[in-house]
Amino acid sequence: MAPNFSKEAKHLIIHTGNILNLNELKRKVGQNLSEEIVESIKITLNGWSSSNNNVAGDSNVVIGGQERLLNAEEERKDLKISLKMFLPVCAPSDDLLISKALDTITKELDTPHVETLVLSQARRQDEGVEGEQQLTQLEPFWRQIESEIESGRILSAGVSDIDTESFVALHTNAKVKPGIVQINLATCCVVPPALQSFAKENNVQLLTHNDPIDLLPEEAVTEIFGDGWSLGWVLRSQVHVKCRGVLASKGFIVYLKKY
């Protein structure tokens, strides 16, 4: 059953908190990332509904998770915060989209900066988005990331699931060069040799991953929230303790808008 938000609610931000501490998730092993985020959102919404804290007349609804995303006992200098930002197929046109997302996560983590941010934009499985079209979609968001790197809120950044030609063009044209490129081995069995060579020559960190191309598709949004809500973005945060390489925290922040 979809949550009962007030009629005035237009913007929704959900903080799952540290999902590593959610017993409900621990019991559900073998989930992929899409299943994990859907379950995390449902757990967060269930906790929110039981607290009856929906304020009528408020167009901005912020829902927090059960567990803090960051343990206050850990010193910031000992931590590495990595973000991956997932944009939907039709990402909203907003010159401050990256900035607003960073405002939310840095406030949640009580930190002035994050170590890395990787940007991934979904695409329809039946519509290959290649070459100039993919580059055209990414460049406005990369310019926003460049501003955040220059301001010091992001120390390094990169992109995910991009073809070699588009990545080379993005890197060539960028004022601040992407230092990371991620390739999904589920859709690309072998890392393209040309991309390997370019990454090595330009000191770009080449990584592989198995995240879904479309992390939170439209049908999942409708199932959870009901009709009338569209996904703006999802931020996945991972906090590692540097000296031990231990994953101390993992969580999601999801932004949705009423249409």
What would the keywords be for this entry?
7 helices; alpha/beta; 27% strand; 259 residues; 32% helix
**What percentage of amino acids are in beta strands?**
25-35%
Order of adjacent strands in the largest pleated sheet: 2-1-9-8-3-4-5-6-7
How much is the average pLDDT? 88
Into how many domains do the coordinates divide? 1
* Class based on secondary structure composition and strand pairing: alpha/beta
What composes the largest sheet?
Answer: 9 strands, mixed
What's the overall geometry?
A: globular
List the secondary-structure elements in sequence, H or E: EHHEEHEHEHEHEHEE
End-to-end C-alpha gap: 20 Å
Relative helix content: 25-40%
Q: Oligomeric state of the chains? A: single chain
Poorly predicted sequence stretches spanning 5 or more consecutive residues? none
Number of strands: 9
The total of helices stands at 7
Radius of gyration: 18 Å
